[in-house]
Design brief:
Blueprint lengths: L3 H4 L8 H7 L6 H5 L10 H7 L4 E3 H4 L1 H5 L3 H10 L1 E7 L2 E3 L12 E15 L2 E7 L4 E2 L14 E15 L1 H7 L3 H26 L3 H16 L1 E3 L2 E4 L5 H8 L3 H13 L3 E3 L5 E3 L5 H6 L17
Antiparallel strand pairs: 1-2, 2-7, 3-7, 4-5, 4-6, 4-7, 8-9, 9-11, 10-11
Helix pairs in contact: 9-10, 10-12, 11-12
Length: 301
């Protein structure tokens, strides 16, 4: 599994409670002003209006962005790369209610899990959104497009979004590597969507599910003695949306995969993949058959 730091998920990321415990000086723009490092990039008007808002040091919550900077520049960049935060509870989310028009660059996912789904006629397709992803919900023009479509958002786990506004853009411009890294996030998301289009094209639902979980393992997976752990609380209904299938078909396919010891749920509700030398071959098999014999068979460690 790839290093979580490169993906933007910080193992040292603080919860809201932790940040408050450390003290308001960590998250309040009014006290940042007193540090002597903030006044050059925020006007007095902005400081006055932001003094009661919840702010975070973005680099504290995104190890991937922090890693692209030279060691000597990280402390200075951390002090200036501050953003307000949107906190989302589990349930449906309407971005228009959050006034994300202030997010000049976009909304950066700091932690949590969401599903973005697109509906055309009676067909729905879902995209899994996790830490490190850069979102611009306001760019959706589905109702005005020649092929009209609807976009919905569902918060699966409590989620925190950093609002990368115009002030953040001005700050980040002093460190081009930060801007490059954020553009790379958008490009990587496009690549992931391309992979998902291919997964949706696979004939068998069990094949789609196994390929999908190995795709997730590259980002979220942790190797354990029992297999590759994918700690995501995805329900059968949510998986059906993400792989383009019906819920009953997903339930049946998951049963088949569990019987073949390729994918199962552990006692905590997390997903566990069997260890394999060539997971792509295990997922696809020789004739698009899950767990086909020969070199596509999983190997246990």
């Amino acid at each position: 599994m790839r290093d979580a730091a490169r993906r933007g998920a910080s193992p040292a990321s603080r919860s809201v409670g932790d940040a408050r415990a450390i003290g308001a000086r960590e998250i309040r723009a009014s006290n940042l002003r007193g540090s002597g490092t903030w006044t050059s990039s925020v006007s007095a008007f902005e400081q006055q209006n932001r003094s009661t808002e919840h702010f975070v040091y973005v680099l504290d919550h995104d190890a991937g962005l922090r890693a692209v900077l030279p060691e000597s520049e990280r402390a200075r960049a951390r002090q200036h790369a501050v953003a307000s935060v949107i906190e989302l509870p589990i349930g449906d989310w309407d971005p228009e209610r959050e006034h994300d028009g202030d997010a000049e660059l976009g909304l950066l996912v700091l932690e949590g899990l969401m599903i973005r789904d697109v509906t055309i006629a009676d067909a729905r397709c879902g995209e899994l959104i996790g830490p490190g992803m850069l979102l611009r919900p306001g760019d959706n023009r589905g109702s005005d497009a020649p092929m009209r479509h609807e976009v919905g958002w569902r918060v699966v786990e409590p989620t925190r979004l950093a609002v990368l506004d115009r002030r953040f853009v001005r700050v980040a411009a002093h460190w081009p590597a930060l801007m490059t890294a954020l553009v790379s996030r958008a490009t990587e998301r496009a690549h992931n969507l391309g992979v998902m289009v291919s997964i949706h094209s696979l004939k068998r639902v069990d094949t789609r599910l196994l390929a999908f979980f190995w795709h997730l393992a590259d980002r979220f997976g942790k190797v354990t003695a029992d297999g590759v752990l994918v700690p995501l609380p995805l329900t059968h209904r949510q998986l059906a949306l993400l792989v383009g299938a019906q819920r009953p078909s997903v339930t049946s396919a998951l049963g088949t995969l569990a019987e073949r010891s390729l994918l199962r749920r552990d006692d905590r509700g997390n997903w566990l993949l069997a260890l394999a030398d060539h997971p792509d071959e295990v997922a696809l098999g020789m004739d698009d058959l899950v767990g086909a014999g020969g070199r596509g068979a999983p190997t246990q460690s």
